[in-house]
Design a protein that fits this description.
Plug_dom, Immunoglobulin-like, 22-stranded antiparallel barrel, mainly beta, Maltoporin, Chain A, cell outer membrane, 1008 residues, Ferric Hydroxamate Uptake Protein, Chain A, domain 1, TonB-linked SusC/RagA family outer membrane protein, tonb box, transport, globular
Length: 1008
């Protein structure tokens, strides 16, 4: 009986407990918005301490069953977490504030996004603010000095000049070294299609005003998702999109003036006459029998060079350098309109850039238009479209190695007049007068580019989406080169060269993505998909001459078609890829990815490659022993390992190729290239270790990284025996490494209501070394560069200049033969043929970096960036003509006059002037210069008119600003500019190369 009562009492107690428990649970609902009142879809809502959760719908609404006293946790990428304790109320509307912590910044990674806080990769992100208002013709130049481990060098100061971008050093010798560019998911066609010997930048077509962000994937863990094309790094460009809310219209206008960053001092007419008269006299006994014949010869030469003018009385003193340069300008005008509602968002933009270069005959006109639209058919189904068109019209000049390029005019003596008395260019100059080329010829390149993408995603289940993309990239270029009958080197009655290239790039991709927060502690992200990328290219050119008049400037005006060519080619990539990320309690982070690429470019036996990557991170600051630290606010350790490939080797290196030949007017076919079915990827294996830190609640933050990259299977043309019928075959032989570290430090130095000052500093060190080469590690010498085991790629290899013999003025060289003990023989000789070439420098910097400061005071803003490079050298290939101790009749740099050896006992590095003497003019370290420099890359000062003044007129923002590029350069480099390189070949070399432009601009931003 007692047991029954006990059982009955227990049953009643259990029923009451269940009743009260059930009564305490209820449906809680509400809306989640941002701090501007816009709904936030996809916000994760969990009951603290449980695995129960939900997400907001497209309109920011949610509903969840919870009991009084429980806590709801609202979390959303890029926003601060919010907590709500359930009381008797059933409706809880939550406003989430955007996180100001850069750790909550969202980064675009391959086929998805991720927050910096949980990132295990090394990715640097640059926003629109980093490239806005920088008056340059290409967006890449605006990135200089702002990304650790990324070296950006413009070839020279021509408006269309190509760029060299190296992410953590050069990872190849003969294959491509440029990163893969991905624009809104489209891998861009990025081949140089120029025909005049100087490269153009294919990415001129992208306007900075349409870019929202740029992510640079530096380590293998981030880049391996792009597999065979990620070895040189990946640059992901994301364009702007509309946001829900009131439509915004923005107009930006700017205009600036440009000048060379530097000019050099050359001999005046009087100095030229004095120096070359002395040089002729010094050549008595070698080039001349006596002084009288020497003077007679040199004065006859002066008569010719002066073209009938009175050189004895200084009638002409032409500044040829001043004629070659001109005052340039940069004009930018762009507009954008964006907005949207709960279903549709849009972004429209257009821009016009006109750039007149600092070298005569060089101009750029570019038009861009873009449309980005997204639409939500339902809470689960989204589609969108990105479409852009650009047209770049470039007036070009000859490459640096052509006599008719304007800057080679510095070789003309000042006693030569530029124009005749009738105003026509003077043709009686020692070298062709570039003014004749300017007046009687033109070279015009037009690049038309269309990028388009349609995309959609459908949420099958909560967190599980299927994504699809179809993209198209068209690169269409035409070149027209007219050379009239009065142009230099033109032996026929005019000539026209016309070419066109049409490259089409198709990308189709589909992938599944799963992103889900599982309770409070677990977050899982999965991506798996496939992609097909096919590129087709068609090229044609034709040359005609014998024109009845220079008024006819197209091919159909020529009487004789003298040359023509055409070809078609294609390549394709087929890929499978997958990635998984896991986050436990925001503390323990794991990631793995893999990509399997197949490419038509590689041999039949090695067509497919697999590129895996793994990474992990530990957020130590989330551990209990650091959570309450008042000083250390963030500390994360991360490490990664992965493999990436380099497929930038051309379309057919693995194939047996045959070409058409003619013998005795009979057609035939001959082998032009032996095939290699085993040819495969250059593979880079990279390991990265990093530490990310933050102090004082993020006021000070930064990261330190160490990396090691090993590239094997380097592509080389290996010589074959003559009886094989071919000279060489492409093979994977060779290995090199890059290793170094990067340091980034960000600080909010002052943060008050009326004054803010923040700074960002980055520095990188990279050591590059060749580990093995073909043919038993034999040296490979090309010009003044060498590939040698144990040395950097393309190390400088030349005679070592030893200065001047103070007794007789001879230029000297170190013999540098090897002594019996293995040391170098440091004796000197005046005969370079008795000396030995040695490795003397690195064309790539070992240290590089930058520092950016941003200051806001009331309505005034100021930002400026310094960049620096250290540890590299430049070889001035034109130095043996420009600074040659009056060896021939080229005008000379001023030091050849002021510092020359003239009598025994003179201590100088400039040998005695000797006409035709070749005194110290061998290609040696005499013309090799360290090019360490620090440069004020850009600076902007702006003023924003207060809101209370402009709101009455319907404006939301009016800002005026002044900005400058390349404002100051601190360097000991003696050439034109430490960033000017030859566009006609030669690694690390300058050759009559145009320096970058220094530009000052005034601009206006208006929004309403």
């Amino acid at each position: 009986m007692k047991n029954r009562k006990l059982l009955f009492s227990f049953s009643i107690l259990m029923m009451l407990t269940c009743y009260f428990s059930f009564a305490q649970s209820k449906t809680v609902s509400g809306t989640v918005t941002d701090d501007q009142g816009l709904p936030l879809p996809g916000v994760n809502i969990t009951i603290q301490g449980t695995t129960t959760g939900t997400q907001t719908d497209f309109d920011g609404n949610y509903s969840i069953s919870a009991a009084e006293g429980e806590t709801l946790v609202f979390s959303y990428l890029g926003f601060q977490n919010q907590q709500v304790i359930i009381t008797a109320t059933s409706t809880y509307n939550v406003t989430m504030a955007a996180s100001t912590d850069e750790l909550d910044e969202v980064l675009v990674v391959g086929y998805g996004t991720q927050s910096k806080r949980t990132l295990t990769d090394n990715i640097v992100k640059l926003s629109a603010e980093d490239i806005d208002e920088v008056p340059v013709s290409n967006f890449q130049s605006a990135l200089v000095g702002k990304a650790a481990g990324v070296q950006i060098t413009q070839t020279n100061g021509k408006v269309e000049g190509g760029l060299n971008i190296r992410v953590r050093g050069a990872t190849s010798i003969s294959a491509g070294t440029q990163p893969l560019y991905v624009l809104d998911g489209i891998p861009l066609y990025n081949a140089n299609e120029s025909n005049n010997g100087a490269p153009t930048n294919p990415l001129l077509s992208i306007s900075p005003n349409e870019i929202e962000s740029i992510e640079i994937l530096k380590d293998a863990s981030s880049a391996a998702i792009y597999g065979s094309r990620g070895a040189n790094g990946v640059v992901i460009i994301t364009t702007k999109t509309g946001k829900e809310g009131k439509a915004e219209f923005s107009v930006n206008l700017s205009h600036g003036l440009s000048e060379p960053t530097n000019t050099r001092d050359w001999l005046s007419s009087a100095q030229y006459i004095e120096l070359f008269t002395e040089a002729a006299i010094n050549a008595v006994g070698t080039s001349f029998a006596d002084e009288a014949s020497a003077i007679e010869y040199i004065e006859g030469t002066f008569d010719f060079l002066a073209a009938g003018t009175d050189w004895r009385n200084g009638a002409v003193d032409t500044d040829w350098q001043d004629l070659a340069f001109q005052n340039g300008y940069v004009s930018d005008a762009d507009f954008s309109m964006s907005g949207g509602n709960a279903k549709t968002s849009y972004f429209f933009s257009g821009s016009l850039n006109e750039t007149r270069g600092i070298i005569r005959g060089n101009e750029l006109r570019r038009f861009n238009g873009r449309t980005n639209i997204t639409h939500k058919f339902s809470d689960r189904f989204n589609i969108g479209m990105n479409l852009s068109y650009s047209r770049s019209d470039i007036d070009r000049i000859a490459n640096d190695n052509a006599f008719v390029t304007p800057l080679q005019a510095i070789a003309q003596p000042h006693i030569s007049p530029a124009y005749n008395e009738d105003g026509t260019p003077n043709a009686n100059t020692i070298y062709p007068n570039f003014l004749l080329q300017e007046e009687n010829a033109f070279y015009n390149t037009i690049i038309r580019r269309v990028n388009g993408r349609t995309f959609g995603d459908y949420e099958i289940l909560d967190g599980l989406k299927i994504n699809g993309n179809f993209a198209y990239d068209l690169y269409y270029q035409t070149e027209d080169n007219f050379t009239g009958r009065n142009a230099p080197f033109q032996s026929t009655n005019g000539e026209v060269f016309a070419s066109s290239v049409n490259a089409e790039n198709y990308i189709v991709s589909g992938f599944l993505s799963y992103d889900k927060q599982l309770g409070d502690l677990h977050t899982l992200g999965l991506v798996a998909g496939t992609e097909l990328n096919e590129t087709t290219r068609r090229y044609e050119s034709v040359t005609a001459n014998q024109f009845p008049s220079d008024d006819f400037q197209t091919v159909d005006g020529g009487a004789d078609i003298v040359a023509g060519s055409g070809n078609r080619s294609a390549n394709a990539f087929f890929s499978l890829f997958a990635r998984a990320t896991y986050d436990y309690a925001n503390k323990y982070l794991l990631k793995a990815s893999i990509r399997r690429d197949g490419s038509s470019r590689f041999g039949a036996n090695e067509r497919y490659g697999v590129f895996p990557a793994f990474s992990a991170g530990w957020v130590i600051s989330e551990e209990s022993f650091l959570q309450d630290s008042q000083t250390l606010s963030y500390l994360k350790l991360r490490g990664s390992w992965g493999k990436t490939g380099n497929a930038d080797i051309g379309n057919f290196p693995s194939r047996y190729l045959f070409g058409a030949i003619s013998y005795n007017q009979r057609p035939g076919i001959s082998l032009s290239q032996p095939g290699n079915p085993d040819l495969t990827w250059e593979t880079t294996t990279q390991t990265d270790f990093g530490i990310e830190f933050g102090f004082l609640n993020g006021r000070i933050s930064g990261e330190v990284d160490y990396y090691h990259k090993n590239t094997d299977g380097l592509l080389f043309n290996v010589p074959l025996i003559p009886s094989s019928g071919a000279s060489s075959i492409s093979s994977n032989i060779g290995e090199l490494e890059n290793k170094g570290f990067e340091f980034v430090l960000n600080a909010d130095i002052i943060q008050t209501e009326g004054f803010q000052w923040s700074t960002s500093f980055n520095a990188a060190y990279n050591k590059n070394e060749i580990l093995s080469l073909p043919n038993n590690n034999n040296d490979i010498v090309s010009g003044q560069n060498i590939q040698r085991v144990g040395e950097p790629v393309n190390a400088f290899y030349m005679y070592e200049y030893a200065g001047v013999d103070p007794d007789n003025g001879d230029g000297l060289y170190y013999i540098n033969s090897t002594n019996e003990d293995g040391s170098l023989n440091r004796e000197t000789t005046n005969n370079p043929n008795e000396a030995n070439r040695v490795v003397v420098g690195n064309p790539f910097p070992e240290w590089y970096g930058g520092i950016t400061n941003t200051i806001n005071f009331m309505n005034v803003d100021l930002s400026f960036t310094f960049q620096g490079e250290f540890g590299s050298a430049i070889y001035n290939g034109g130095g043996r003509f420009q600074s040659a101790s009056a060896d021939y009749f080229d005008n000379q740099t001023l030091d050849q006059y002021t510092d020359r050896w003239q009598q025994p006992g003179d201590i100088t590095d400039v040998p005695q002037a000797r006409l035709f003497g070749g005194n110290g003019t061998a290609q040696s370290t005499r013309y090799l210069d360290e090019n360490d420099f620090i440069r004020l890359r850009n600076a902007t000062l702006g003023y924003t008119i207060p809101d209370e003044v402009i709101e009455r007129y319907g404006f939301t923002k009016i800002r005026v600003y002044v900005t400058g590029v390349n404002l100051l350069t601190i360097t000991d480099y003696e050439g034109y500019d430490p960033e000017a390189r030859s566009d006609a070949g030669g690694v690390g070399q300058a050759f009559y190369s145009v320096p970058p432009a220094r530009t000052f601009s005034v601009g206006l931003n208006v929004k309403f």
